[in-house]
Amino acid sequence: VLFVKGVQPNVLLIFVVLIFLCSLAGGVVGNPCISLNHLDYYKASRFLSYGVSFIDGLATLKVTQARVSDSGIYVCEAHNDAGSESCSVELKVKEPPVFSRKPSPVDMLKGTEVNLECEISGTPPFDVTWYKDRRQIRSSKKYKVTAKNYHTSVRILNVEAADVGEYQCKAQNDVGSDTCFCTVKLKGKVLAHMLSTVLPMALHCFSLHRHCEYLL
């Protein structure tokens, strides 16, 4: 028994169908005994998601609804009366990033600091980018951006009116991406506007009232 073409390394996006192919040749009378083994441990219930076939010298292993737990070394072994042969392949099943925790809308006080935090699930490493009103922001005197493992955050220093807007975090790896949004507002802005319009009217009414009392 001789493998003329072994299985090739695979990186697989989760929840799709994977097919391993092995081609056999070399003085074989009839079909050899073919066994396809996963060297890593897996639960018996997962056998239902594996399909093995051998047709016209082509051995096939099909994995449906692949999971991260399916990652590992797979070995194709062929046996007949003349001997045996095997080949192997490493399978890596990766998950795209998903934000498992997102920042909530924030009302900030002028002059304070605020921290926007996110938690990411999926297969690292992640490429994380923060934006404000669709413009990328980096660590500076105004912002402190951090991204480590499954956690990322941006700290806004010395909050002012210019910091009001929509903040966006994008995480991506080589199999996908995800984005979350957060709105930042400034506390006291509405109140200040009301005072600037209502207070002069109130003072005017008070002045008229005192004038009327004087006339009486």
Automatic annotation (TrEMBL):
Any Gene Ontology biological process: synapse organization
CDD domains assigned to the protein according to its UniProt record, in alphabetical order: Ig
Signal peptide: 1-30
Residues annotated as domain Ig-like: 97-173
InterPro entries listed in its UniProt record: Cell_Adh-Cytoskel_Orgn (IPR050958), Ig-like_dom (IPR007110), Ig-like_dom_sf (IPR036179), Ig-like_fold (IPR013783), Ig_I-set (IPR013098), Ig_sub (IPR003599), Ig_sub2 (IPR003598)
Gene Ontology terms for molecular function: axon guidance receptor activity
Keyword Ribonucleoprotein appears in the UniProt entry: no
Gene Ontology cellular-component terms listed: axon; neuronal cell body; plasma membrane
Keyword flag Disulfide bond: no
Gene3D superfamilies xref list: Immunoglobulins
SMART domains for this protein: IG (SM00409), IGc2 (SM00408)
Source taxon at top rank: Eukaryota
Keywords of the record: Signal
One Pfam assignment: I-set
Protein known as: Ig-like domain-containing protein
